[in-house]
Amino acid sequence: GENVEQHPSTLSVQEGDSAVIKCTYSDSASNYFPWYKQELGKGPQLIIDIRSNVGEKKDQRIAVTLNKTAKHFSLHITETQPEDSAVYFCAASKTGAQKLVFGQGTRLTINP
Amino acid sequence: DTEVTQTPKHLVMGMTNKKSLKCEQHMGHRAMYWYKQKAKKPPELMFVYSYEKLSINESVPSRFSPECPNSSLLNLHLHALQPEDSALYLCASSQDLGQGWEKLFFGSGTQLSVL
């Protein structure tokens, strides 16, 4: 089955700097890659996603890139702010699977 | 309304108790999910309902019993739980299991402690 590895497990950056979180997946049939943000005491919230027919997608300060050949995808957050502090999960799925396979999560801390 | 509402937010129960977790959404979604999340771990899928019918059971022990009374409500009935079942239980919904199923909307969860 699909396996998703996520790195790093913790990341600390200065406010205003950029943060990058990387994920690799094992199943070449996977074609949908979402990113979820989980703040303390809340459930995960979808922040951005990408499908395999697209190499990059941006939404204001966040972007996701996908390299199908290498089977990895990354979340980029620019101009980080304190409210970006949270746990971020990547995930992967494929058509017909009806379930997401999550990475282990990255705890991002933004230092003022 | 883009919310998934879960009650209660916190629950403490003994191993002989019977309790229920409740979840409600009014987005017109036809797929609903139960996930279990241990501290510092990703969510683990337990059950999926599609159009009020159980679609996926991830080999969950029978002490967890899901129920979907209608398209807006999802319950998880708990009986004879073990301390290792202590976790955050998350409900989620999505459009349906065809197009758009992958975009999950999660509730804030019920933090369950089994003593």
Labels describing this entry:
heterodimer, A: 112 residues, mainly beta, six-stranded mixed β-sheet, five-stranded antiparallel β-sheet, 0% helix, 54% strand, B: 115 residues, seven-stranded mixed β-sheet, four-stranded antiparallel β-sheet, 11 strands, 56% strand, globular
Over the alpha carbons, how many angstroms does the gyration radius of chain A reach? 13 Å
Strand content of chain B: over 45%
Biggest sheet character of chain A: 6 strands, mixed
Q: What is the string of SSEs of chain B from the N terminus onward?
A: EEEEEEEEEEE
Helix content of chain B: under 10%
**Main sheet of chain B?**
7 strands, mixed
Shape assignment of chain B: globular
Poorly predicted runs of 5 or more residues of chain B: none
Helix count of chain A equals 0
From the alpha-carbon coordinates, what is the Rg of chain B to the nearest angstrom?
A: 13 Å
The helix fraction of chain A, in percent, is under 10%
What is the overall number of helices of chain B? 0
In whole angstroms, the N-to-C terminal distance of chain B is: 36 Å
| Distance between the ends of chain A | 41 Å
Largest interface: A-B, 19 and 21 residues
Number of DSSP-assigned strands of chain B = 11
